[in-house]
Structures are given as C-alpha cells and as structure tokens.
Amino acid sequence: MTRFTAACVQLNVGTEIEPNLREAGALVRRARDAGAELIATPENTGFIVQGREAILQRALPEETHPGLPFFADLARETGATLLIGSLGIKLADGKVANRSYLFAPSGEILARYDKIHMFDVDLAGGERYRESATFDPGDQAVVAPLPAGGVLGLTVCYDLRFAYLYRTLAQAGANILSVPAAFTRKTGQAHWHVLLRARAIETGSFVIAPAQTGTHDKGRQTYGHSLIVAPWGEVLADAGEEVGIVTAEIDLARVEEARNAVPALRHDRRVAPPRAPLRAAGE
User: Fold this and answer.
1) Which of 8, 23, 37, 43 is an active site residue?
2) Across 94-107, average pLDDT
3) Is 157 a catalytic residue?
4) 43 a catalytic residue
5) Percentage of the chain with pLDDT > 70?
C-alpha cells in the first residue's frame, strides 16, 4: 500500500516567462514544505498571452527554454517529483507544442506529453478560441511510473472532455491522472468539477488537476479551483479562486478498492456502429 502527499499549485500567470517561473518556484517550495512529494503546476505555467503572433513570439524550443533547467534544478533542490502542467515549446514547423513535463527528484525528465485535443470553440458572449491555428496536437498517450509510487497518466485541459483517453490511460496501468488546465471561467463554472469527478469515477483513479485562476492578458479569465479527486469521486482538496497550493494524501489502496467494487475497466464490449436510421412514415 503506497501513500504519499500530492499538491496542486494554482497560478495566475502573466505574459512574461521569467516572473512566472519565479512565482511557480516559490509555490512549489511551499508545497514541498507542506510535505508534498508530487507537486503539479497548471497548463501554461510559462505564460498566457492572447493571439497567435504573441504566442509564437514567446514560445521557445526545448534547447533554449529557461523553464527546463529551472524546473530540473528545482526538482533537485526540493527532492520532489514535479509535473509542470505545460510549457509552450516552439517546433521545427513553426507551430507550438503545449507540452507537459514530468521531472524526477534527480532533475531527469521522466516523461513528456503533448496536448492531444485542441480547444477550437465559440462560447456564448463572444469568447472564441482556435488552438489549432497555433498549436500542433500530440498523438501519443503517455503513462509514467512515479518515484513515490503509482503510475501517472498525463493529459492537459481540453483533453478532459474526451473520456476514451482516460480509459486508455487507466487500462495501460495509470492509477493517477493529471489534468493541468487553464479552464475558462464560463466553462469551468459549468463543467470543471463534474467532469473531473466523472473521470475519477469512470477509471477508479486519483485525479490531480492544477489550474490557472483569475484575469490574464487582455481580460481572459480562468476558473481556478485546482482539485484533487479520489477514485470514488470525492473531492479531497479544492483551491477555490486564490493563488496558492492545496494538498491531499494519495493512498493507492483506494484505487484497488474502487476498481474491485466496480470493475468497469474489465467490462469493455465491442459494439457495432448504428445502422442507418429508418425513414419516417410518409417520407
């Protein structure tokens, strides 16, 4: 039975990388002082800016991005495992990867994950997002063993709406799922808690979801409420809307209990697609 403390770092990042790294670093140290062995930051830990050109100006390739040596050093300093929710990484094709990094306490990068699902939506009130215009989607699901115990399945933000991805991760061995996010205030108020609880319940997994909060560049608003959810769906920690940290105990025996009680991950059935609908009478 493996037990350890996990933490979510909740941020309100600005437009420039260096001050955002300093703020994230200070909160990671606070989480470590609170006993956390696995510490997760939100999507877009490096920066949040509006507009394709502004994103492309700030995104950097891995080899020159200051976030990678910064968080490697921070992992070594704290002795914690760090999940950096995502950084904007410039790619050879001129687009950007929205990429999560998992750092071991040694500073080694244990896993990389590129966000698969692009947030291309038109919300009521005029909010419009076209991630696919700037970002290249990933195409690889990623799981990674954690030094403290357990197996982490990596996802990012809008991935949350695609339940098949979480089932795939759980069936590949993940018993903890990460969902670093910058959920909009509008969609967060409506869907954040229920979707995270659903992903935990469906897979019998812990869910760790660090989030951005507050107002960002050009008035963009994010919802906050970083959550840690247990495999039976209970919310163990909720950060509300303030910048800061929350922690909770991860007891992996609870995963086994939930999956034994409802072994749905073993009950998949092949289903034939629907037949073409019959025409209504008189057509």
Assistant:
1) 43
2) 97
3) yes
4) yes
5) 98
